[in-house]
């Protein structure tokens, strides 16, 4: 009868050693490596697409911004002259200032209207009127910006619906070509942008309100809080994240605006509605100043980052 010692595998026999299963730690490392390779394989197509269509144009624009080039002839080195022109020429600086003014209409006004409308819709959530209000207010968001610009160009013209309503109300002295007046052209464009952006802000804020615990409102009512106190003490802090997203998206839309302004005013009258996106388009394709247009695009990108990053930092600070 063999002893237990005789049944143990002999160290010199390779077959018994090869049949030994791998250690658990080694199997875990292999699984992790395989998971990483699969993750890289899944991300690679999107990363290549992003690198080719986003990073590559940014690098090319940064390169062109240091040259004086019309897109055809040989480029000559210009150094930082194009950036100096962007930050010193009144026309280009005015375009940047117009974009910052549009933040009021594209961001602050839509967020304020969306907060008021969302709070009102939440209070009548059980009625059919709430669903109709959500639909009506969100419709502008699904309309193409070009179509929105054309529609509002008709409404704001000398014989448009806006002036017809004002004449019917006996306010003939107020009527004007809203998009053709130096004083009202930029605010009129801002109204179009506010009309478009309100729907997105409304949906985001309504989604945030659904996360607020209803018991908080019940406790506030028991303590004698009114609608205004409920709004500032419960609703507003509860949708802080959604407001931050709305502000970030709409600010970027204001600084990078192009479609609505190109269709509605093309930057006129004069340069009263000229914005960076439109000025870059004119510099590159009409004036053939590729270097200046590229420098302006890099400055615009830096402005967007400089405005958006503090908003994100503010959001993280509120969270902590």
UniProtKB/TrEMBL annotation:
Keywords: Cell membrane, Membrane, Transmembrane, Transmembrane helix, Transport. InterPro entries: ABC_transporter_permease, MetI-like, MetI-like_sf. Belongs to the binding-protein-dependent transport system permease family. One of its GO terms (cellular component) is plasma membrane. It is a multi-pass membrane protein. It comes from the Bacteria. This is Carbohydrate ABC transporter membrane protein 1 (CUT1 family). The chain crosses the membrane at residues 37-59, 102-121, 133-154, 185-207, 243-264, 290-311. Its main location: membrane. The keyword Membrane applies. It comes from Glycomyces artemisiae. PANTHER family: ABC TRANSPORTER PERMEASE PROTEIN (PTHR30193), INNER MEMBRANE ABC TRANSPORTER PERMEASE PROTEIN YCJO (PTHR30193:SF37).
């Amino acid at each position: 009868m063999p002893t237990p010692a005789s049944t143990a595998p002999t160290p010199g026999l390779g077959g018994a050693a090869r049949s030994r299963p791998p250690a658990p730690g080694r199997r875990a490392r292999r699984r992790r490596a395989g998971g990483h390779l699969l993750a890289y394989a899944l991300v690679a197509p999107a990363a290549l697409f992003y690198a080719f269509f986003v990073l590559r144009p940014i690098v090319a624009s940064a390169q062109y911004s240091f040259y004086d080039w019309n897109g055809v002839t040989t480029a000559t080195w210009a150094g930082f002259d194009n950036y100096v022109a962007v930050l010193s020429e009144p026309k280009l600086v005015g375009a940047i200032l117009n974009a910052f003014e549009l933040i009021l209409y594209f961001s602050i006004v839509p967020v304020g209207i969306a907060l008021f409308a969302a709070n009102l819709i939440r209070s009548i959530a059980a009625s059919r009127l709430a669903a109709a209000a959500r639909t009506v207010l969100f419709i502008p968001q699904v309309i193409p910006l070009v179509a929105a610009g054309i529609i509002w160009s008709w409404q704001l013209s000398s014989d448009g619906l806006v002036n017809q309503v004002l004449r019917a109300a006996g306010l003939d002295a107020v009527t004007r070509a809203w998009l053709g007046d130096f004083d009202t052209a930029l605010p009129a464009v801002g109204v179009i942008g506010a009309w478009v952006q309100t729907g997105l802000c409304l949906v985001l804020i309504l989604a945030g309100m659904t996360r607020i615990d209803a018991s908080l409102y019940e406790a506030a009512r028991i303590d004698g809080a009114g609608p205004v106190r409920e709004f500032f003490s419960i609703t507003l802090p509860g949708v802080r994240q959604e407001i931050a997203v709305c502000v970030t998206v709409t600010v970027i839309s204001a600084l990078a605006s192009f479609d609505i302004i190109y269709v509605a005013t093309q930057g006129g009258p004069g340069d009263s509605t000229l914005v960076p996106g439109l000025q870059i388009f004119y510099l590159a394709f009409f004036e053939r100043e590729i270097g200046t247009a590229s420098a302006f695009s890099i400055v615009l990108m830096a402005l967007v980052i400089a405005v958006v990053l503090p908003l994100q930092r503010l959001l993280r600070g509120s969270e902590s």
